[in-house]
Amino acid sequence: MIRLRGISMHYALGETPVRVLERVDLDIAQGERIAIAGPSGSGKTTLLLLLAGLERPSEGTVSLDGVDLGRLDADGLADLRRDRIGIVFQSFHLVPSLSALDNVALPLEIAGRRDARRRAADLLDQVGLAPRARHFPSQLSGGEQQRVAIARALANRPALLLADEPTGNLDSDTGERIADLLLRLDRENGATLVLVTHDLDLAARCDRVLRLHDGKLVPRPRHGDATATREDATDADRPAARARLA
């Protein structure tokens, strides 16, 4: 479903070039669950940005179902994200002036779905928040906000679900419940899942765990990933890029 070939990503920091990704090749099959780990600055969030079409690589190609994202203009990429991609953000990124129901319905309304609010209500019910549908984000706990964010990401039944540290801002018990919910709904919707995480237990529940180090993608055995060093649990790739995911 996803094919990356020769992906490199370079940025200029003043007069100094910053090399974030170097010649990354990756194939992901339809329905696979992929976890990406790695130390701070290794390029994890940059990789999600590329998969979402929110960044263009300095070199190489990113293809989704045979479509080269580099050949799409801004409108084409926006349409692709609307129709094919769902994104779960670490910091939720809900619209504060909209209720939980309206936040979930928003991408459906943008897509012109007449059943937007009915579909949104059904999704909130699936994530256990039907009684909170009229509440605003400020009235919800962190775990509740992330459940709304997951419902919103799945609203258009995306073929590809991207999750950037989906449990990163939650306590361990809430994070475990969110991980259970995310994986269950992903399975039920049949989406391909690519997630960035420092939660080693969550990573171990995926089909493959890949580690980025010095901009290069390194596959590791599942057992090795489940017992990875705490270097993988130090976060935060490129704060500016993380903000652009919003």
Spell out the blueprint of helices and strands:
Layout: E1 2-13, E2 16-28, E3 33-37, H1 44-51, E4 59-64, E5 67-68, H2 74-84, E6 85-88, H3 100-110, H4 116-126, H5 142-153, E7 160-164, H6 172-189, E8 192-196, H7 200-204, E9 208-213, E10 216-220, H8 222-226, H9 239-244
What does this molecule look like?
35% of the residues lie in helices and 26% in strands. It has 9 helices and 10 strands. The protein has helices at 44-51, 74-84, 100-110, 116-126, 142-153, 172-189, 200-204, 222-226, 239-244, and strands at residues 2-13, 16-28, 33-37, 59-64, 67-68, 85-88, 160-164, 192-196, 208-213, 216-220. The longest helix has 18 residues, at 172-189. The radius of gyration is 17 Å and the shape is globular. Residues 222-246 have low confidence and may be disordered.
Radius of gyration: 17 Å
Helical content stands at 25-40%
Enumerate the strands of the largest sheet in spatial order, edge to edge or round the barrel.
6-7-8-3-9-10
Describe the main β-sheet briefly: 6 strands, mixed
Average of per-residue pLDDT values: 87
Strand content: 25-35%
List unreliable stretches of 5+ residues.
222-246
Using the alpha-carbon principal axes, give the shape.
globular
In angstroms, what separates the terminal alpha carbons?
A: 24 Å
Number of DSSP helical runs: 9
Give the helices and strands as they follow along the chain: EEEHEEHEHHHEHEHEEHH
Beta-strand segment tally: 10
Strand-pairing-aware structural class: alpha/beta
Which terms would index this structure?
six-stranded mixed sheet; alpha/beta; 246 residues
